[in-house]
Structure formats: structure tokens, C-alpha cells
Amino acid sequence: MKEILIIGSEGQLGLEIKKQCKVLNKVNFTFTSLQSLDVTNTQQLVDTIKSKNFDYIVNCTAYTAVDKAEEEVELATKINTSALATIGQSANEIGAKVIHVSTDYVFDGSNHRPYVETDTTNPNSVYGSTKLNGERALLSHNKESMVIRTSWLYSIHGNNFVKTMIRLGNERDELGVIFDQVGTPTYAGDLADIILHIVDADISKVTTFEPGIYHYSNEGVASWYDFTLAIHQKMNISCRVNPIETKDYPTPAPRPHYSVLNKAKIKQVYNVSIPYWKDSLDKCLLLLK
């Protein structure tokens, strides 16, 4: 039996992995939550990782309050950077492979073509900087580590853009939503599926675990405005949605204007097809209904 540790199992991605984990045979899962594991407690994190001979560690936990991170720099650094150094070092000592989820915010959004893994990183927020430093810390401490950068994550769980737009659309007659920030919505269920596929392919020797940096989001491109219209249309919400510019909605942390990710590498290495963002949104909204 293979042993897999899921760190942060109560978040959007962790809950989706927990829901789908039964597809893997001959695997024991250990799930931790914020209550059972404080990743800012280094000794507790080390003890948890070394409590079993884990073959794989999947880190789903992160400090994701993008604007709040501009003030809570120390906490964001502990969760997004320091914990990754600990995970990498401890995993290396027990011979475990690590899959860690990162973000499109490691880029500054100045590109005009989808970002590939080798493009120059240049985060323009505390959140993006701490996530990039976490990537580097993990990869430097454990050569058997995989970083998967994703974007605009949503699910039926927790707080996210989809749920917020449904709530505001039902509460208000009119909304202003940014149209000059472009990326790709990513359904957490699809990301969970690819992570479990990577682990399963390695266990079954179909595809060897290939460390390094990968990009994964759903297919296609949208602005936040497009995303909102698709949500409201599917949910039969009649709220008027007006396109606004980023300058009309200032935030403490700058957002990338363009964060579309090129997924060619992960598709080629792991021989996977990726769902179109509207199809995955439909799937999520049916569950929310």
C-alpha cells in the first residue's frame, strides 16, 4: 500500500481530492486540516510528515487572502514560503515525492501570450512573492518535487468568485465587474483529478513522476466580466452586469492583467486532455443548484 499525505484537506482543492481519492487502488490517504496541523508550527509539520513512511505529499494549503497579505506579510511568508522549505526538507529525508499547488500571481501579467513554465517570474504582490519563494524553497530542498501553478480556482466549497457572484447577483439589481483582467477559471475538481492522475500514473508505472514546474488551468480564456456573465446565465440571475476597468476598482494588491497559462507541458508529459472552462463551470453550478 502506498501512503499519501494531503496537507490542507479542508480547502477547495483538498476537499475535492478527498471526494475523488477512492479512484486510487492500494493507497492509504492521511488528511490534515487547519485544526489538526498548523503549518506555521515547524516542529508539528516535521512530526506529521515523519509520522509515516509517506510515498507522496500533496500540499493544498496556502495563505490566499491576496489583499490582506499586503499587511500580514509575516503570516503569508510563514505559510507560503517557510512551510514549503520544511515540507521539502522533511519529505527529502523520508524519500517522499511532493506535489505543491502554486499560482499565476508569480507573473506580473504583462505578457500577451499564454505563460509557459520557463517565462520570467515577476510577482507584483506579497501573495505572489511568497508563493514564488515557496516554489523555490521546495524545489531546492527536494528534487523529487512538482509545482503546479493554477489560476482563478473555484468549487462548490468555501468562499470563491463563483459563489460571490451568485450571492451579489441575487442581492443586487446591478454589478460592475472588471473586464480588462484576462485569465482562465479553473474548477478545483479538475485540478484534483489531474493530481490524482499523476500519482496513479506513477504508482502503476504508466508514466514516471517528472519533477519540476507545470501549468494547469481549464482551457480557454475569459475576463472576470465574461466569467460573471456565464455564471449568471447558467443560474438564471437577471442582475445587470456592467464591464469596468481595473482603475475603477482599486485593491491593495495589484492583479495580473493577463495570466493565461500554457498547459502544453502537462498535457504532453501526462497525456491528459483538459476540459473547457465553461463545461467545468456548468458541472460545478449543477452541483451548487
Automatic annotation (TrEMBL):
Record's catalysed reaction(s): dTDP-beta-L-rhamnose + NADP(+) = dTDP-4-dehydro-beta-L-rhamnose + NADPH + H(+)
Occurrences of domain RmlD-like substrate binding (ranges): 3-285
Pfam entry (one): RmlD_sub_bind
One annotated GO molecular function: dTDP-4-dehydrorhamnose reductase activity
Superkingdom of origin organism: Bacteria
Enzyme class: oxidoreductase
InterPro entries: dTDP_dehydrorham_reduct (IPR005913), NAD(P)-bd_dom_sf (IPR036291), RmlD-like-bd (IPR029903)
Recorded metabolic or biological pathway in which this protein acts: Carbohydrate biosynthesis; dTDP-L-rhamnose biosynthesis
EC numbers on record: 1.1.1.133
Keywords carried by this UniProt record: NADP, Oxidoreductase
Family: Belongs to the dTDP-4-dehydrorhamnose reductase family.
Job of this protein: Catalyzes the reduction of dTDP-6-deoxy-L-lyxo-4-hexulose to yield dTDP-L-rhamnose.
Record-linked NCBIfam families: rmlD
Name the record gives this protein: dTDP-4-dehydrorhamnose reductase
Organism for this UniProt entry: Carboxylicivirga marina
